[in-house]
């Protein structure tokens, strides 16, 4: 592509970090200024000669990571070629450097360390570039993502860019680290499960390839990043500052800055995990059928598919500054390539060979590499036979940036119709030289989570799925998803592999219901959809995974109609007309078994076009195909579930036994561990790196040890909830709707301090106030309480702190609320929707069909004495929702929490006073008063030692 920088030198000047391209003419340099991180072009290098002084070479720019007041340049220092397409090299990133942009001193120190590290590698015979082709060797991507960086080898330069250095050194044991909070349990477990902590055999037991344990696999700790210290290792002065702010609670603390070391640590591991791919000359984000052949002179980033442009947000500062020559698009996923040979004129088979041909597919791969069909030393390929034909098979999996993230934290669909773990997999068959005179075949499949709103708790080993939102809300998102697929691929064959009975059935049935509704409609999208529910576990019970052929018998004709893309002499002579969309619960293990079977089926048809019948080949062993698909499954699984794929032994060897089942059990345990320990912060970091959320997400993480899901607009849901409550609870048509708000309220009514709090809806009319408990999962009103405005005695607003476990929870300016005191009277009612499955301790009156009211009864003693009952005084406690949302472009109100509270109080007071009659000469009392509801001091007293210990333990594990 024109002007794309392929190699550059990075060094620190007085006023900024200089990026100087190497070996290109013209080669305009760029500078990232320390003062404001602006990117400006420079004509000269400021007097520094290339390679002189403190500098290092990089092979491209990942982007600019900016959080809080710190920025870091992420550059590629190590790569490996994994494939070539049309003669264009494809690389995987195996090492990155993060260079701080705070000062020249910080940048110099970091650059010096990176330079030293690269020089050491060069001295060991590894220059980091690895320009040579891999000759089709398999590429392992599953292990690096989970390998940890040795804590003892972490360089402190990045920490110095954040805070002043200190003389602290790590001399304690892992146990001492855990006890003293200097190291997270997550890091300890990562080290335990890293390459150092497991033998080669044990790693194989997790389904990883043998190459994972060899020296050819890149080790994360060998990257050139002068990494930050572990997240808990702050300098003493910084620790004192954090403690002081927490104890006083008077000044806000930058939570994003406190978690910056952990974010840098994770970013290093992420980009060095051998899961990100790039090419300087070829668009790897598009399939053969979707390649753009016009406007080739435009920058590469303008031509790539934005659905798979992973570093779009990080590299946007270069795009906005016009420095497009540094914009190198990255794709997350998998790329593998293998050569193989087939006999165009195989010798006739005897009876014994014919009888055994059906079993040859199930035989284990050959151990001797010298007899492999694609080996240049093979006697068959170098000897007398002239009928061998060479082929090249390439497998590319592209992970979508939409609803990206980790298992259990990103499930189902989002409001825009994107599903979790969306992956497009393309299988390409070509001539090894990519000769235009030979046909190029492309077969595309996709996978993605079940396209309905559902969730599963990561705290259970076998969590039960829970459906979310109404059918109408679900169907809208489902339709958007199907419309997107038909627009991109044409017809779509849906293959649902979840169980028809048991826990998985609830989401499978919802999927089937929506698919049937769409197919039976007159909509054009529905006419392009076909649905098949194949209970994989039931059909393949007893580890008979070969029974997947039963599904192929059902959908085979549909797949044949779709065909595949064929390119000849640079022209597209045939195009795939549809796509198989496969899913199980995680879209990993069962899905990969089906997709590999479909890929093999397509390969057989394509080879027949080349005059080759695979079923009569004398050398029927196809370990090259099985291994390629198994590695693909491991890569997709590691990126979504942090482990290799289950059922990988069947994909590799076409055999399944109890040893494989035991391996899968070990993988399940590892996935469970990752889900409850590592994934929470990782998910927040992924959303931040993609630009889906702002740095506020780290505030949410520190307070709740969770992160928001940007896939659903909470603002829209809240607006719909207010509208639903208004229509349902305001029975009198003569009541005028004044306003509606969503706020937090104690789960137990008529209390102030009880926890947990839940989000409720407050409706104000001209005569009454309605407090509605809302079931956000089903989008139904579970109960409501009506308060006559004339019964309200006081409205108090002020500081309302319910916890002091985090800085955000103890911020007096942001934790505010309202307490409405009222005398319960005959016009006040409480009703419960018994159909909403609410657990709130209220009346059994059915909100939809019941008509009885619940009035506060007089006390028994007063009834016995015949005296009139005095009205009971009750309270309605409400707390403002956070005004700042972590979701980027959320469109949330710019009002602060205190402004929201004052506005609500003002509206309620106005309507109350509007209906009051005041005697002449009587002074009207102020209804609204300002004062603490729960002060910071009281909240500290109410926060018990046990709660503090529990929160600290969670932070130890999660953060």
Q: How do you describe this structure in short?
A:
The protein is of the alpha+beta class and 959 residues long.
Keywords:
3 domains, 13-stranded mixed beta sheet, 959 residues, PH-domain like, 26 helices, 29 strands, alpha+beta, 5-stranded antiparallel beta sheet
Shape: globular
Could you tell me the strand content as a percent range? 15-25%
Q: What's the story with the biggest beta sheet?
A: 13 strands, mixed
Q: What is the number of independent domains?
A: 3
- Low-pLDDT segments, ≥5 res: 45-51, 131-157, 163-252, 352-383, 836-868
Q: Count the helices. How many?
A: 26
Average pLDDT, all residues: 76
What is the radius of gyration? 32 Å
**Number of separate strands:** 29
Secondary-structure-based class equals: alpha+beta
Question: Care to describe what's here?
Answer:
It is a single chain. The chain has three domains: 8-326, no CATH class; 335-346 and 386-687, no CATH class; 714-958, Pleckstrin-homology domain (PH domain)/Phosphotyrosine-binding domain (PTB) (PH-domain like). Helices cover 31% and strands 21% of the residues. It contains 26 helices and 29 strands. Helix 16 (589-609) runs antiparallel to helix 17. The chain starts with 7 loop residues before the first strand and ends with a helix.
